[in-house]
Predict the 3D structure of the following.
Amino acid sequence: MPSFYALEVARALTGRVPEPQRMEREAAAAAGARLAWPAPDDPARAIDEVEHDLATLRGLLASGEARGRARYLLELNDALARSLRTRWARWRGRFTPADGLVRVSAGTQEMLAAARLGARAYSASALQKFAACPYQFFLSAICRLEPRPEVAPVVELDPATRGHLFHRVQADVMRMLAEQKRLPLTASTMDAARKALDATLDRVAEQYREELAPAIQRVWQDEVESMRADLRMWLEQTAATHAEWEPIAFELAFGLRRDPANDPSSVESEVTLAEGWRLRGIVDLIERRRGEAPRGAAAPGGAPDLRVTDYKTGRDYTKRNLVVGGGEMLQPVLYGLAVEQLLGARVVESRLYYCTRTGGFGERVVALSGEARGRGTEVLGLIDRAIAAGFLPPAPRTRACGICDFRDVCGPNEEIRVKLKEQARMDELRALRDWP
């Protein structure tokens, strides 16, 4: 984009403001520079060291005689030399340490051993990142890095904050109704339930308003009213399911510190599956099939059947016949297995419930069959083997980089670069991404 000062100089010389695109073409023709390569054709005309180096490289690359001719760059600065060698290595056909974590070394052996799934607990949302990109999983779940928070006025709610507020209202209102003995919901209790929902949303929204200090109050109020409409529809649909399923726990946490916002039955101890994998997390809703014994008691035909629900407030991008969703939808299976360990009862199905207009109020139900359970443990075993082997490279699935918090770390070309690498080493990862 031409400088405004340059436009003023051109007007002083010619009497008019030139067309910016024409001025750019004329400047490029005169100086031999362009936006994609901001340096002149002749290094002698460079105005600083960077232009000089770019001009020198441009001539060498154009001549086809570049080999060994720019070695002076490696001798100018140690950091520059490391950067150039690393960039070259990342475009090679095999994985090297320049790509990231691709092998066990003396410096990483102890850290990787402590990061295995039997050595520490992971949440389902953390484990899901492995299928999207193993390196993202390494940075986020193992190194526990996260984006630097940016201070900005709240104009509209971001999806994460909206989802957190939405979940908080759902749990609080259901817990209130349970304390008032209004669960399961029936036609006679719906009026009271709606009033409780509105009062809970007003109270929680006011708490968030105080914390977030939204810049435009009208926009904030519109966001709250939009959520109110979604929550009322969620309440209506929930009441319809209570003829068969009775809720028994809301926001049940395991492996986390006690929080008054979670279910009173939450436990700080982690869940350890039969294979030794350790899990932690929060289950949004646990229900018992109607007519069966209370939680922890034996029903006439055995332990009570349970259903686990994970609420979603975004769009539904899942495919039919969902089980683990290519390794990126692990909550249904893993939460089902965890709840069985916690409550000592059989979970017969687990579901994702998209409880907003954005998600279409749809649900994806996963029957906890032997196949589904096997898929869940297979995913955990695959991730554990990758950690043990120290092979967690930047290998994103298609379009994963566009929504990754760590793109600044890897750069924009990982989806292109990974196609040049040793494909045999990624056979298990590619197979995982194809699982239903």
Remarks:
- The longest helix spans residues 217-241.
